[in-house]
Each structure stands twice: as C-alpha cells, then as structure tokens.
Amino acid sequence: TQLLEQSPQFLSIQEGENLTVYCNSSSVFSSLQWYRQEPGEGPVLLVTVVTGGEVKKLKRLTFQFGDARKDSSLHITAAQPGDTGLYLCAGGASRGGNKLTFGTGTQLKVEL
Amino acid sequence: KAGVTQTPRYLIKTRGQQVTLSCSPISGHRSVSWYQQTPGQGLQFLFEYFSETQRNKGNFPGRFSGRQFSNSRSEMNVSTLELGDSALYLCASSLGGGYSPLHFGNGTRLTVT
User: Fold this and answer.
1) Which of the ends of chain A has fewer CB neighbours closer than 10 A, N or C?
2) DSSP of chain A
3) What is the C-alpha to C-alpha distance for residues A88 and B106, in angstroms, rounded to an integer?
4) What pLDDT does A95 receive?
5) What are A57-110's pLDDT values in tens digits?
C-alpha cells in the first residue's frame, strides 16, 4: 500500500511569513499533484509535477518533486490570509488513469 | 463552462439502507473518479470510470459500486450502510488521458445514523 505522509499536520502563521510543507513516501510515483481545499468545497488542483527534480513556480508558491520521485515540497513565500486552507499532495502510480494516493493533509491558517 | 456537479449535497440515512449519489462531469470529460474523505483516513480512492468502463478500483468492499452512463454522468451506490460510511464523497472528472488534471465537485456529505 502506497502512503504519503505530510508534515506538518497543522500550521498557523502570521501574514508575510514563509512556510514549507513536505510530502514524503517510500514509494515512487509517476506524478505528484498538489491541491488546496477550502471548507465545503472540493480540492482544487494547484500543480502537477512529473519529472524527478522538477521545480514549478506559481506566483508565491514553489513546488518541487524529489529526484527519486518519492517526495515533494510546497513553499509559500509571504503568506496571505487567502492562502488559508487544507493542502493535499497526491501521487499518481501510472501514466494512465486517475487513481491517486492522497497525502494526510496540512491545514494552514494565515492570520493578519 | 459548468463545473462538476454532485447531487445531493447532503444526505442522512439509517444503518442498513442503501444510497445512490450522482455526479455530472464537465462537458467533454470522459473520466469520472470517486473518492471518500473522512477526518481519520483522509481522501481515499474508490473507483474510476472511463467511457462507461471501470478503469481502476480502490480497496473498498463490494458494498460500494458505481457506473457511468453514455453521457459520462456517473452514479455511485452504497448498499447496507454502516456508521463508518459517514463521509464526504467527492467526484472528479477529467479528459482521462496522460496527466490530465482532475476537477472536483463540492461533494455529497453522507451521514449514517
């Protein structure tokens, strides 16, 4: 069974601070996706990374896929209250199909 | 472009009953996946349908079943409900090829009493 552990589980920070969320597994994934979910809504895809060592930037968010494709990180620079939400990583085991293994989640709260 | 629509939003059922949840994907999307989200287990994959065929299946008992219609709409059925089936059930659609992104609906909140 493939497992994805995220850390930290909870994070409460002040506006303007930087943070990093980690997503680790002992399994290799063909792709790694990051989602953000807000209360009462479904997860929304932020990014997909597919190549070991790949780094993608989305405004203040930086995503990295580990060289061995077993881990990933999400770094947020100068966090804003609008970044508040549940961050989920999800690993894809093969190119075809949408059977994703989701991480345990990181609940982020950014306060003014 | 309309997003993924799940109905109903909320359901309350009694243990032993059965329930059917519905999902209408984004127009043109041929893949529909179902996930269960609970506080203890997080998001877990149930199954995926592509062009009316089950393409992938998660590790859930046979009480959980699904189907997809020719218009790509999908239904999920849970029979003989148990208290532990209380969860948010999420549906996601995609074009279905390669790393095509998943678009999630807002879910159906099922409570089993």
Assistant:
1) N
2) ----EEE-SEEEEETT--EEEEEE-SS--SEEEEEEE-TTS--EEEEEE-STT-EEEETTEEEEE-TTSSEEEEEESS--GGG-EEEEEEEESSSSS--EEE---EEEEEE-
3) 16
4) 58
5) 999 999 999 999 999 999 999 999 999 999 999 998 765 567 899 999 999 999
Tokens linked to B1: 């472009």
Question: How far does B99 lie from chain A, in Å, by closest CA?
Answer: 7
Distance CA B74, CA A47 (A): 26
Interface contact flag, A98 B48, Cβ < 8 Å: yes
pLDDT of amino acid A93: 78
Token pair, residue A33, equals 């996706």
Mutate which: A7, A29, A36, A98, vs B, most B CBs within 10 A? A98
Closest to A41 (Cβ–Cβ): which among B45, B48, B106? Answer: B106
